[in-house]
Write a structure and sequence with these properties.
By secondary structure, this protein is an alpha+beta fold. The chain has 2 domains: about 35 residues, no CATH class; about 120 residues, Beta Barrel (Lipocalin), CATH 2.40.128.120. Helix content is about 15%, strand content about 40%. The strands form 3 sheets. It has an 8-stranded antiparallel beta barrel with strand order 5-6-7-8-9-10-11-12. Strands 1-2 form a two-stranded antiparallel ribbon. Strands 3-4 form a two-stranded antiparallel ribbon. Strand 1 and strand 2 form a beta hairpin. The protein is elongated.
Length: about 180
């Protein structure tokens, strides 16, 4: 076999009229694609539960909150508190009672989530400075719906307050219900 024929065989191999790339290039491409898949990360975690107990997901670019199980070295363990919102005006009566959750981080902050008219509202609850019992909470939905709440805790796990919505609906808030 002459030298030209050997070079042509090494560059490309013909099989049924189609050019085959050398196996080394295919392995390299597979390794690069596999590495990209392994190194890409996506956190999809539920932010609460709906009325039927199914997980509710909110998609955001923010880091997901630590829901529970922090180690003793990193601080106190968080607690998930159920919340209920009872309608107190005619606009709120159209939707009825709402349920959601507050994840109390035990540091004066919490993650506030609930469903409202088919949309998941996500936000935070924060204790007012110089008052360990009073706080405010805000939540926002993808279509622009928002809620703002004021509350007072009777202890670390229960409290009550009121919430007003962007459509003027008003609710009585019960935390730890």
């Amino acid at each position: 076999m002459n030298t030209t024929a050997k070079i042509q065989i090494q560059k490309t191999k013909r099989l049924n009229g189609k050019t085959r790339r050398p196996l080394r290039i295919m392995c390299f491409a597979a390794a690069v694609a596999g590495s990209a898949l392994l190194l890409s990360g996506c956190y999809v975690m539920p932010v609460g539960r709906d009325e039927n107990g199914k997980p509710v997901y909110a998609y955001t670019t923010a880091r997901p909150p630590v829901m529970s199980g922090q180690s003793a070295a990193s601080g106190p363990v968080s607690a998930v508190l159920n919340v209920k919102l009872y309608p107190i005006n005619n606009i709120a009566n159209q939707t009825g009672m709402l349920v959601g959750q507050v994840t109390n981080m035990m540091n004066g902050k919490g993650r506030f989530t609930f469903n409202y008219q088919g949309e998941t509202l996500v936000g935070e609850a924060t204790r007012v400075s110089n008052d360990k019992r009073r706080g405010i909470a805000s939540a926002y939905g993808p279509s622009g719906t928002f809620a703002k709440c004021e509350y007072q805790m009777s202890n670390a796990m229960t409290g009550a307050g009121t919430c007003s919505f962007s459509n003027n609906a008003m609710y009585q808030l019960h935390i730890g219900a």
